[in-house]
Design brief:
The protein is α+β, with helices and mostly antiparallel strands and 223 residues long. 35% of the residues lie in helices and 21% in strands. It has a single domain (30-222), classed as L-fuculose-1-phosphate Aldolase (3-Layer(aba) Sandwich). A hairpin with a 4-residue loop joins strand 6 and strand 7. It is globular and about 50 Å long. The chain binds zinc ion.
């Protein structure tokens, strides 16, 4: 009986630790902060969509995008066509899991800075961080995949891992937040957004995913 009690204590301590880290580091999720115009109900069928679903499941299993009621704190995307900036991304308020369907994703077509407007397709609004994804694709022609998560382990060990970190903590989902990230992402493919999360860029989804694994695995050596 006392053994069981100890196990329960350990589990609840761990859950408290993650909950504390998550709620302490980021403002609560209140939806997207851009204007959105839906121009089609279905996203493009693309052979790489299955791979995006695979990495969403991995992010969930590895606690790289911890869940909150009604969603997961992370967003993953891939570029649809080279030389263009449109992409498929996880939709807003969507839980990452093993059985994601096409309607859990949105297609971002364009972002109009003056109106702070995103145009897109799909049944749901695209992820709140779509402006950041758009600006990265626009400025980094070599990048075709962007994975953003809130791993408590990577955040905790960012300094020991020598990962470039943004100087200012900014409200999620804004142009300022996106530009702040982009400043570091001109010269780096893996960064920390201060008190928020990480961004992993890759030429392919496999690159972005394995790079995340690399840092997550390194965290184990600090325990
Ligand atoms: Zn985030």
């Amino acid at each position: 009986m006392s053994k069981l009690k100890t196990i329960i204590q350990i589990i609840s301590k761990k859950a408290y630790f993650y909950a504390f880290l998550f709620f302490d580091m980021a403002e609560p999720y209140n939806g997207v902060k851009f204007n959105y115009k839906n121009i089609g109900k279905t996203i493009s069928e693309h052979p790489l969509l299955y791979e995006l679903k695979y990495w969403c499941a991995v992010f969930n299993h590895k606690n790289l995008a911890p869940p909150y009621p009604g969603g997961s704190s992370g967003n993953l995307s891939f570029r649809l066509n080279s030389k263009e900036n449109n992409f498929i991304i996880t939709a807003s308020r969507t839980a990452l899991n093993d059985s994601m369907v096409n309607t859990d994703f949105s297609e971002v077509i364009n972002y109009y800075k003056n109106q702070n407007l995103i145009t897109g397709k799909g049944e749901k609004e695209p992820s709140s961080e779509s402006i950041m994804h758009f600006l990265i694709y626009k400025n980094r022609n070599d990048i075709n995949a962007i994975f953003h998560g809130h791993s408590p382990e990577i955040l905790k060990h960012a300094e020991q891992l020598n990962i470039p970190t943004t100087e200012k903590e900014l409200p999620y989902g804004t142009v300022e937040f996106a530009k702040n990230a982009l400043n570091l992402l001109h010269n780096s493919d893996f960064i920390i957004l201060k008190n928020h999360g990480f961004v992993s860029l890759g030429n392919t989804m496999q690159d972005a995913g394995e790079q995340t694994y690399f840092f997550l695995n390194k965290c184990k050596s600090f325990k």
